[in-house]
Amino acid sequence: MSCLRSVTAMLFLCVASAGALAEQASAESFPVGYTVDVDESGVSTGELGGSGSLTATGSFGRARECEQSSDGGPFSIGHYPPLNCAEAGRNYATTGSPETPSEFLYTGNEHCVAAGRPVSGSNFFWHVRLPHTGYWHIATYIPSWTQYGAGDLYVLSSDEGQSQSGSVWQQGFHGQWVGLFGSHRFTAGQEYTVQLPLTDSEDPFCHYQTADQMEWVYDGPSSPSAAILEPADRATYPEGALVKTRFACSEALNEALTSCSDSNGSSGGAGALDTSELGSHTYTVTAKGVNGATGSARIGYTVLAHKIVCSQGSGKLTLSPGLTQTPTVQTARLKGTLTGCSGGGFTEGRFSAVLTSTGPTGCAILSSAGGQPASGTLEVTWRPKAKGGKSLGSLQVSLGQASEFPLDGMIEGGMFAPASIFGTIAETYTNAPQCGVRVNERVKPVKTATLTTSPVELY
Description:
This protein has helices at 18-25, 110-114; strands spanning 2-6, 11-15, 35-39, 42-44, 51-57, 61-64, 103-108, 123-129, 134-142, 155-158, 161-164, 176-186, 191-196, 208-211, 214-220, 225-230, 235-238, 244-250, 257-262, 270-272, 279-289, 294-304, 308-323, 331-342, 348-357, 372-383, 390-399, 405-406, 408-414, 419-422, 424-429, 438-439, 442-443, 446-453, 456-458. It has 459 residues and is mainly β.
């Protein structure tokens, strides 16, 4: 794939993977609020993934959720194991809804075990592997049922070690989500757990506690991040070329940035590649937070020796049928001269190209910063004639009134082949302000422009 990237006073042709650039730009675009939900049936996530399971040790049972009531009752008191919804005189909840899950697990606490009650003594574990490193908070769903834990204590594992929740009286939150743990740091792909042990901190009686949905919700990044917006990864440039860069940094959750700079010492979101030496190179941007955490992005590029350099160029562009308010496909003919050339014994190159716009083109390209791409064939005749020689290839240029457009092209035959073209071109259209304007009952198409180029290199 070939791609265009504009630079100051110069332009380059890149043959690279655009996907690498897109990946860097979106490195910290993971959506806040993304949820990984784990229950007895497995895990429920979005397109960005996550995995998990709910497991149990010891004796436990399965129950279906009851229909909601104002106080969670009627309850199953003095029955071991507890009565189900129908036995307690309650309807079952509607099935198939994420807000009212139909099934959950339950077990008796340590006092049930001491009293020899059945279906008791299980510890529950929610296991999870999260798809993105950062801060996540955790909540659990308490189903509507006939029996509840009176003082459950949940235990979380995270990158910060183990944390214990406050006491949760499940009956007080029947049919609701309960926030258990605020933002904690997790690393993508590692396994973490929330445990519900037998401990009952409220009273010394036998209570049956429930285990249903546990969700991890993404709050934000735990480290700052960097992205290189331009140029693309794995491009090639001629020696000494001026290739500007654009980059950006994002702060971590609740941690401001202290710096965002590139490997050449530039900051403020703009810099340049070092093209002073031939060979393969790496360009890096580093973000640093006030607490010392860092994030980085990098691209590779290659510097090649140029084959010929021409210090400037000028010429003329002619459009057919010309620009009007009604866009139409244009044929562009370019003719001109490259001067101040060095390399291969040539001092001048006369060029001609015939290009076709990739889509309908009208006056609009003269009043915007963008342009309409046009591509076709290129021929350069090198002088002095005594040495002879032509270069044949392809060229793509945007048609428009911007101060500079990339010259994207390849020399595929003749002198200097194979070679890439590096440079920019500016177009100044004759009578551009009158494009589409009726003068003396006529609207004249804008057909011509003068051309000037930056230094043009073949490499």
